[in-house]
Queue: 3 jobs
Job 1
Amino acid sequence: MICTGYRRGPGGHGGPLRVALVGAWCVWVVLAWWSAPRPADVERARADIAAGKVAVYEWGESWERPTVSSWGSMPLLRSSGDDGAVFVWRNPDGRTRYAVVGDGYAQSDQLFFDDEDHRSSPAAEAIRAAVRSSVLATGGPNAGDLLFAAPYVAMVIGLVCLAILAAGPAPVIGTRWYWFWIGTFVPFGLGTLAWLVLERPWSGRAAAPSEPSVEKRKRGYVGFLVAVGAAIVVGLLADLVPGGFGIG
């Protein structure tokens, strides 16, 4: 059971598992940063297609925020077959770029939009012509869904932490609901890292052998408010970082 395995390690505080979870979070950071869609222009798209640097591509109507999101969520591309205002492609090295081909849109302000007047734009037709030419010459690139690995890594981390939180020793700083809200919705997994650093069974300060009194712990609604506040603050700070693209 998880409850017995995670207590092994230096000091009896789940050293190996905690290191593994932090390591997995670091992997998520690298994957999320590397594969985050970055804006480019139509000429960059055509050049990459001509140079054979497009492994897979997809057309989309717009980027959409997930209806239910956690710290590992990424914006979703609303697919549109061969039509769309957004042309997204992935390079062989795993980096993802997108070009907005709808007339009247600037690259800096079009992440979440919807319009029907883009399908016959010159930029869109130029990219379609480049794709057709490349397919005739080399057999590629391939059309398909651009799946991102980072959200799945975050999901695994979240499920493992949730299992430990639910089945392991009761936390002492806050209730299980307190840490659920913080661990799930504080951006970039910072709430999960805080739980790994501060709370039982990971921290030596929380060695109470029995269930701590609920009255002495931070309640679930406090965790919810903290998570909302942290999401707002971190989100504002993240907007200042180029290439962040709403990850977290």
Job 2
Amino acid sequence: MSPARLLLPAALLVVHAACQQAFEVDRHDLVGDRIAAVLVERSADALHPRALLISGGHGWSDTRPLIRWFVLDPDRAVGALMALDVLSTPDAEGATPTLPRAEGDTALGLMVTFPSGETLRAVRTVPAEEPAPVSVPTGMSVASLPWDLDPEQTTPEVLSLDARRNTEADPAGSPEPGSWSRLT
């Protein structure tokens, strides 16, 4: 059999597999229990973890899940957390505990027993050095420079940052809905 004859059945198999749903539940439907996120705030000598939980497909639960936190060795955190069971003594319990901050990297293990009886685990490693903050713009002010600049008189001094800061600007206003703006 030639390789060309095998290409068509292989292509049909790939197309057929690509059209199949990967999961029984649509990704937009939240079902079951999940640990959606683990957040950690730092203070000078402590860590303040929080967990975002989905219980029974909802962000709320009529019965409080049992939330237990463990301080683990960062090098063996996953294995250590998997070795713990529901009877292990946690370092802290509850939704917003305070845990001691270690000298180096710290691994926090989270074990949650949901009202359904399902127990899920998650590990979050907290580096010793706090990452650089990410700043997000909170607003924008748009103005335009005057268009009557003579190209013959445009010198580096006229275009310097200090000269442009002292130039009287005309507010550009807001674009109309459906229109566009260009920022340069």
Job 3
Amino acid sequence: MARFYIVDQNGVEFGGHYQAYTACVVDGARKLGLDPVVLANKRARRMSGSGQPEILPCFTYGWSEAEVHGQLDWTEGNIAYEMFQAFGRLPPAVDDHVFIHTIGYRELAALFACLTERLLPGDPIPNIHLLLRRDPDILIDNYEHYEQYFSTLAASAYLRRKITLHTDTILLSRAF
């Protein structure tokens, strides 16, 4: 059964907004016949009860903390580094999926740098689904910080096949 990794670096207290969103995604993944795995904040409390997804605590910061303290260097505190460290503990197959549903702009830069600069062309990676959930004004105002990443993604047939960008606002959909 293919795995569906859900990145929830924000979920610390189960029962909050992020956990409710993640729980809906877990339920949807199961309905599609996928095996959900939650990549969670290191401070996350374990959920109790049967039927809970596997949870791998791996992230140092939630997205708002990462905007201030997140690392762009390949080290602890970098969302991409910590995600790939978690993959070392529970390796994804190339047909597995990773869904990142809430990400800050500093985390976006760290993730794009990993995917466009650290990986060799054709490196086996799971399918990555990145949901951009903010209106585009901040991204557009700072586009020079992301332009090379978007250009590299667009230029690589392999990365275009493995990485899908999603939006949940009309403004983002129109902009990208």
